[in-house]
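Recall that a protein's primary structure is simply its ordered list of amino acids. Everything else, from secondary elements to tertiary packing, is in principle encoded there. The following example makes that idea concrete.
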Amino acid sequence: MNKMEIRFDAVSQNEAFARLAVSGFLLYKNPGINDMEDIKMAVSEAVTNSIIHGYDGEGTVRIYCEIDKNSFMVTVEDFGKGIENIELARKPLYTSRPEEERSGMGFTIMEAFMDKLLVTSEKDKGTKITMYKELK
């Protein structure tokens, strides 16, 4: 098993860094282009959700990854506001910030590109998104 953990400020400029860090960690497994693009897209969505919805100001995002044989797991976690209603937040087109013209497709995209998605959240303690992908 191989593991990686990073933490960074919850600012939009770090979304690209997160995507590149996760794909760089995964590179030695020589994943197919489709798997790599799927993972990068899902990580981008999860990190963007943490930055946009997790905090009203400063904060930290944590990413933890594990590779075991051909199984990949990534967790994106913030320590912010939390999600009041996870079931509602996972519905397509729902956004808690309609004034920012958000599409409300973040969880839908994550679910479409990964094999499994788990979301846990606690009010004023943060949200943890864990995603799994079997590498082809």
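The chain has four helices and five strands. The first strand starts at residue 2 and ends at 9.
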